[in-house]
Amino acid sequence: MEIVNQLKELKKWRTKIDQLESQIEYCVEQSNKITGPIYGEEKINVQSSNKAPYERWIWKKLDLEKELKEYQGKFEDLAIRVTDEIISVLKDGQILKVILYREVSFMKFTEIADKLSISKSYVYRLHNIGMSEISKQVQ
User: Fold this and answer.
1) CA-CA distance, 65 to 20, in Å (whole number)?
2) What integer is the mean pLDDT of 22-39?
3) 24, 69 in Cβ contact below 8 A?
4) Which residues, 6 or more positions from 28, have their beta carbon under 8 angstroms from its beta carbon?
5) Mean pLDDT across the stretch 67-87?
6) Which residue has better confidence, 40 or 135?
7) Angle 9-13-15 from CA coordinates, rounded to 5°
8) How far apart are CA 21 and CA 2, in angstroms?
9) What does the mean pLDDT of the chain come to?
10) Running DSSP on this structure, what letter comes out for residue 42?
11) What mean pLDDT do residues 98-105 have?
12) Interatomic CA distance for residues 66 and 85, integer angstroms
């Protein structure tokens, strides 16, 4: 698989991981919102249940965490493969750092500029150069 397609696949996995993490957070919030019994009020539903009201959210959270681990494993494997291929294509160290920070670590351009102590416009320029070199390598 070519590097550009692998980078797209990596971004897709990262998006899915972010979605799962937010769903897990939502399940935790929902399970914490459920209050305990309110004493002194008339019971409308007198049928007893053996399940706690928050149990559904806990089970869903556990299922999502299992799915998240699978996605994270696939993401890490693909990230390692893509990183190796990008390193073999790009020879300039600064361009390589910009591409890896942006495309593999998903950092923002401003964060990359701060980390490398260069201007944001120069980061854009290096990113464009790196991506064009990667695209040329495929052809």
Assistant:
1) 8
2) 79
3) no
4) 57, 61
5) 93
6) 135
7) 115
8) 29
9) 86
10) P
11) 94
12) 29
